[in-house]
């Protein structure tokens, strides 16, 4: 199974590139952010997720891990999965290793998109026009998401680096150029 963790700060292009990888390699794309946004906003779980995501804070690990595992379990015959926006903490990375190991598989690689902070901010503000996402529109929330990434999420790269699975990819350039960089790394494995 090809299990790709597509990693990077908010606005790095994970969603856009996930669609390209999904098409090219026939993978299932799982974005925990998309799953949270698709929850019924009136349900208990929907309200809980929104209370964190609207502020740019992480949804607690316990809830997120459960949601991710349920989502993966919907695709028992997948030839591979792109994990987009998960894991975002070391505890989530450990839980994913355990979960996949119980299925006789493992994370194949982490592809980490590297984009400077100023570029992230301008991309997110531009995206707010089309995404309608509250967390894309407000500079304070954007800053909080970037800080959360730097403090809680960036260490996840070290987790995979220690396993020899980290690949850093320059995330600046045209969408097609970045897609090609990702394909090159995957095809070289
Ligand atoms: P995203 O669409 O990946 O930018 O995620 C939007 C929001 O959903 C984040 O700011 C978090 O509040 C929440 N979220 C998504 N994925 C995770 C995760 N793996 N762990 C915790 N919170 C998450």
Provide a compact summary of the structure.
The chain has 189 residues and is α/β, with parallel strands linked by helices. It has one domain (2-184): Rossmann fold (3-Layer(aba) Sandwich).
Give the topology, please.
Layout: E1 2-7, H1 14-25, E2 28-31, H2 32-38, H3 44-53, H4 61-73, E3 80-84, H5 90-102, E4 109-114, H6 117-131, H7 134-137, H8 139-153, H9 155-161, E5 166-170, H10 175-187
Parallel strand pairs: 1-3, 1-4, 2-3, 4-5
This protein binds adenosine monophosphate (AMP).
Residues 10, 32-33, 36, 52-53, 56-59, 64, 85-86, 88, 92, 135, 145 line the site of adenosine monophosphate.
Describe this structure in words.
By secondary structure, this protein is α/β, with parallel strands linked by helices. The chain has a single domain (2-184), classed as Rossmann fold. 58% of the residues lie in helices and 14% in strands. It is built from 10 helices and 5 strands. It has helices at 14-25, 32-38, 44-53, 61-73, 90-102, 117-131, 134-137, 139-153, 155-161, 175-187; strands at residues 2-7, 28-31, 80-84, 109-114, 166-170. Strands 2-3-1-4-5 form a 5-stranded parallel β-sheet, with helices on both faces. The model has no long low-confidence stretch (mean pLDDT 97).
Q: Which architecture would the CATH scheme give at its second level?
A: 3-Layer(aba) Sandwich
- Most strands sheet: 5 strands, parallel
Looking at CATH, the homologous superfamily is P-loop containing nucleotide triphosphate hydrolases
What is the typical, i.e. mean, pLDDT?
97
Overall tally of structural domains: 1
Helix run count: 10
Query: Can you list the ligands bound to this structure?
Result: adenosine monophosphate
């Amino acid at each position: 199974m090809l299990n790709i963790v597509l990693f990077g700060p908010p606005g790095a292009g994970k969603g856009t590139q996930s669609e390209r990888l999904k098409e090219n390699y026939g993978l299932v794309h799982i974005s925990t952010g998309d799953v949270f946004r698709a929850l019924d906003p009136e349900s208990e779980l929907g309200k809980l997720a929104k209370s964190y995501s609207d502020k740019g804070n992480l949804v607690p690990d316990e809830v997120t891990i459960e949601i991710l595992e349920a989502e993966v379990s919907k695709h028992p015959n997948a030839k591979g999965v792109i994990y987009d926006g998960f894991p975002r903490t070391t505890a989530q990375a450990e839980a994913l290793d355990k979960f996949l190991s119980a299925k006789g598989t493992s994370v194949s690689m982490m592809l980490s998109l590297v984009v400077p902070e100023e570029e992230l901010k301008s991309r997110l503000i531009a995206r707010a026009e089309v995404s309608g996402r509250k967390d894309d529109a407000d500079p304070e929330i954007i800053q909080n998401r970037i800080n959360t990434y730097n403090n809680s999420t960036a260490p996840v790269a070290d987790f995979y680096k220690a396993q020899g699975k980290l690949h850093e990819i320059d995330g600046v350039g045209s969408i097609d150029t970045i897609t090609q960089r990702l394909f090159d790394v995957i095809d070289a494995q």
